[in-house]
Write a structure and sequence with these properties.
Structural class: alpha/beta
Shape: globular
Largest sheet: 6 strands, parallel
Radius of gyration: 20 Å
Low-confidence stretches: none
Strand content: 5-15%
Number of helices: 14
Distance between the termini: 68 Å
Strand order of the largest sheet: 3-2-1-4-5-6
Keywords: NAD, Oxidoreductase
Number of strands: 9
Active site: 175
Pfam family, one: NAD_binding_11
Domain 3-hydroxyisobutyrate dehydrogenase-like NAD-binding: 169-281
Oligomer: single chain
Number of domains: 2
CATH topology of the largest domain: Rossmann fold
Mean pLDDT: 94
Protein name: 3-hydroxyisobutyrate dehydrogenase
């Protein structure tokens, strides 16, 4: 197994910045950083990270290169664009994609990097921004056994759960379907809250009672109690447009497999409507506002 000497981290957004902070302060390894925004770069430089002026410079620095990007389109641009990773990497490096990306893209990029002697892992992160700040994210990994063994100690700098799901692409499959199930659960919670309010019962007592029975879940305790019940949908959390992107990936997989995912189609339509009504940057349980409006419409 090759010795890890240097790291790079590209993409310092809502999740990337706290992950990189944990990696910088806990790994004991030098970390080069790059982002198009100067503010997170400056903040992380104070913790010991080394700013790089470009993707190309960041790629030259690290034996292991972490990417935390908003979507597959951004991943593709960083890898395939002028001065991107495919043009900059060298044999023996490892690419770790921490974002949620299409499965086919992950596998295609892995093949192109392999042709250059570069390993690839998809390692999308789950849980909330608070978990990123606390270093308690959950990560599903698609990689060879050797690559997983190499990167697992680094991932544990910012995650409390790290699961090897199989070969490249498997981490994305599990993460995308996890989000599909979470959105379906939260949609049901939003509907339950809207119906309960129409019948004179507030969401807080309703959800607290759910926790004592068979309706209890992580989604209830976090998205339900902390967002839906108090009607808190802040920006710079996990926005509606990001969740819509993830559900679109799930629907693409379903279509490729000949599966009619009706619940996912419903939740995708709600997320799309929320974006169209101007809630794209708000925390995605904001779909509650649409459901309440629908519940309030008089019967025809």
């Amino acid at each position: 197994m090759r010795k890890l000497q240097t790291l790079s981290f590209i993409g310092l957004g809502v999740m990337g910045e706290p992950m990189c902070r944990h990696l910088t302060t806990k790994s004991g390894l030098p970390v080069a950083i790059y982002d198009i925004s100067a503010e997170p770069v400056a903040r992380l430089a104070e913790t010991g990270a080394v700013p790089a002026p470009s993707v190309e410079d960041a790629a030259r620095h690290g034996n292991v290169i972490f990417l935390s990007l908003p979507s597959g389109k951004h991943l593709q641009a960083v890898c395939e664009g002028e001065g991107g990773l495919l043009a900059s990497v060298r044999e023996g490096q490892t690419i770790v994609d921490l974002g949620t990306s299409p499965v086919d893209l992950s596998r295609a990029l892995a093949g192109r990097f392999a042709a250059k002697g570069v390993d690839y892992a998809d390692a999308p992160v789950a849980r909330t921004r608070q978990a990123a700040e606390q270093g308690t994210l959950a990560i599903t990994v698609g990689a060879s056994e050797a690559v997983f063994a190499c990167i697992e100690p680094l991932l544990r700098c910012f995650a409390s759960e790290v699961t090897h799901c199989g070969a490249v692409g498997a981490g994305q499959v599990v993460k995308i379907l996890n989000n599909m199930v979470v959105v379906g659960t939260v949609t049901a919670l939003c509907e339950a809250a809207a119906i309960a309010r129409s019948a004179g019962v507030e969401a807080g007592p309703l959800f607290e009672t759910f926790m004592k029975g068979s309706a209890d879940s992580f989604a209830l305790r976090n998205h339900g109690l902390k967002s839906v019940a108090p009607r808190l949908f802040p920006q710079r959390t996990f926005p509606t447009e990001y969740m819509l992107k993830d559900i679109s990936y799930a629907l693409d997989m379903a279509a490729a497999g000949g599966v009619r995912a009706r619940e996912a189609e419903l939740t995708a339509s709600l997320l799309q409507e929320a974006v169209e009504q101007g809630y794209g940057a708000d925390y995605w349980p904001v779909i509650m506002k649409l459901i309440e409006v629908q519940e309030a419409r008089p019967a025809e």
